[in-house]
Specification:
58% of the residues lie in helices and 14% in strands. The chain is of the alpha+beta class and 565 residues long.
């Protein structure tokens, strides 16, 4: 028996099964994480039914106050009686546990908090009225209530007839005017953020141009007159846009709607403050799917609002992808050149071994150390010198002497360059010496052999290093907090203004967005599902970037397959 067991061990079968089990567990854990992120994150965008009920918990004097609650069910949990008593609600201590539910009540401008825990035992008269309205607002979060009337410039133009159960005339008037308000808001956004923003950018360029002329001693009367004429033209364009903007604001602010919230509280809401309005309790599956798609599309393509707990995260997606692409551009040539020198040109001895040890040790340095180095060297020293040499007219305001996209990309390139060096060196080491000697025997120089034979054969290994670099850099947060990432930067680093790609500009990042929403948000309950959704999106972005690099690596591997030995 022992002999057979020893023979079984000697075949290596147990280690094969152990390895397979470890791989299977890892796959299950990854899939479980993705399922958790998907369920907890994507569920946030589904238009949930809204309940109306009466809540009557006793107070410390055993008096019962009945309040009306209107909101969405979020989650439920069991809680021990002692915790409920400590919160001021007297309950029977003999009952070991009570059930409580978290409701999203909205109406934060009326109640001060839009989430509340309620005990299931004290909820009664639960119903789902068909005419209950949900408003998603630009400020103050969601609003839940009943539409009463629609007004234009203070005059009621449509009112709900309480005697008619199916009277939708006021709702139709409200939705029509809301569509108009949304269209006007888009026009206002275009003028404020694009047209006026472009004028402000050109005015600032003229100011810097004039300052540069003064520093260089070339501020002649003709040059200053030309700048003044251009500035006057821009001011004329600005005045025209300002008139249009005032007119649009007058139009968009004319319409209001009156709603009745829980406990008969009346609230007048300007339609300009509403992003979306719907009645979830009478929406069918198809309508809810359309609403789900609209909210998910807003999440992927819009800008954040409400301290990043509402709206979209497109600037963070764009900033993450742009930073990773720039990092790849910086790290690949530098890492490949370093690996080629160490493997192909450097004398193999003590110094080379010491350099390789140093490179391997750099891969284990905490990322925050790279952030401190990037802040001290790239921003304060290198960026400060660039400002002194090329942007003296902007001083003392820094141009490149401040955190931005360029320094964040270079810092992460420095962080990941050991990975690229090691992977490229391993690829170069696998190429047989006979291949190099054959190329040299045919009359090629060492550089031609390297460029036309060795590097193409090692390109899959280079791409492997780039894949590992992208996987590590895309999820880094700590160094980016020091060298360029900010909480809110809705303007993208790419626009129609020269030089089109603004490397000095600060940007948003999905990893930092997760940290900010999850740990810095003033409304943690509202932010929680967005943490899961953003984390899932970050995983998807990293996976897509890696898959693109894997596809390129496989293409290179097939292309130079005939050179493999």
């Amino acid at each position: 028996m022992n002999l057979n067991l020893k023979k079984w061990y000697s075949t290596g079968t147990p280690w094969i099964w152990l390895t397979a089990g470890a791989v299977a567990i890892s796959i299950v854990m990854v899939l479980g994480l993705l399922v958790l992120l998907t369920v907890r994150g994507m569920n946030h965008f589904w238009p949930k039914d809204v309940m109306q009920a009466h809540y009557a918990p006793p107070n410390a004097q055993q008096e019962i106050t009945i309040t009306q609650v209107i909101g969405e069910f979020v989650e439920s949990e069991n809680i021990i009686a002692q915790q409920i008593i400590s919160s001021g609600i007297p309950v029977d201590e003999s009952q070991p546990e009570y059930r409580r539910e978290l409701l999203k009540l909205g109406n934060r401008d009326l109640t001060g908090a839009d989430f509340s825990w309620v005990l299931t035992d004290f909820i009664s008269d639960v119903e789902y009225p068909a005419n209950l309205v949900v408003l998603e607002r630009r400020e103050w979060g969601n609003f839940y209530g009943y539409l009463q009337s629609v007004s234009e410039a203070g005059t009621v133009v449509a009112e709900v007839n309480i005697d008619e159960v199916q009277d939708d005339s006021a709702w139709d008037e409200f939705t029509a005017r809301l569509e108009r308000a949304l269209a006007l808001h888009d026009e206002i956004y275009k003028i404020e953020n694009q047209d006026i923003g472009e004028i402000n950018y050109r005015v600032e360029r003229l100011r810097l141009q004039q300052r540069r002329l003064e520093l260089d001693g070339r501020a002649t009367a003709d040059a200053l007159a030309d700048i003044a004429a251009q500035r006057q033209d821009l001011e004329t364009e600005y005045e025209v846009l300002q008139v249009s903007l005032i007119d649009l604001y007058e139009q968009v602010n004319r319409d209001t709607a009156t709603f009745i919230a829980a406990n008969a509280q009346e609230k007048v809401i300007e339609l300009a403050d509403v992003v979306r309005a719907y009645r979830p309790n009478q929406m069918g599956l198809g309508a809810k799917l359309l609403g789900y798609g609209a909210k998910l599309g807003e999440f992927l393509t819009d800008e954040p609002r409400e301290a990043n707990t509402e709206g979209g995260i497109f600037p963070a997606i764009f900033g993450t992808v742009m930073m990773v692409m720039l990092m790849s551009v910086f790290v690949t040539p530098f890492g490949v050149i370093a690996a080629v020198y160490l493997r192909e040109y450097a004398r193999q001895g003590f110094v080379t071994r010491a350099i390789r040890i140093a490179v391997n040790n750099l891969a284990g340095v905490p990322s925050i150390v790279y952030g401190v180095f990037g802040l001290g060297f790239f921003i304060y020293i290198l960026g400060g010198q660039i400002d002194q040499l090329f942007y003296p007219e902007a001083l003392p305001a820094p141009t490149f002497g401040t955190p931005g996209l360029l320094w964040a990309s270079i810092t992460l390139a420095l962080l990941t360059v050991p990975v690229v060096i090691v992977a490229t060196e391993e690829g170069l080491a696998r190429i047989p010496r006979s291949v190099r000697e054959g190329s040299l025997a045919l009359g090629a120089t060492k550089f031609e052999t390297l460029w036309r034979v060795v590097l193409p054969m090692a390109s899959p290994a280079m791409m492997t290093g780039l894949i590992l670099a992208v996987a590590r850099a895309a999820g880094e947060v700590a160094p980016l907090m020091l060298v360029g990432v900010v909480k809110l930067a809705p303007s993208l680093p790419v626009d129609g203004n020269y030089p089109y790609l603004h490397l000095e500009q600060k940007f948003m990042h999905l990893g930092f967005h997760i940290y900010d929403v999850g740990f810095q948000s003033p409304n943690i309950e509202a932010a929680r599902p967005l943490v899961f959704a953003t984390a899932l999106l970050l995983v998807i972005v990293i996976a897509l970037l890696n898959l693109s690099a894997v596809a390129l690596r496989n293409h290179l591997r097939e292309k130079y397959k005939s050179l493999d030995v």
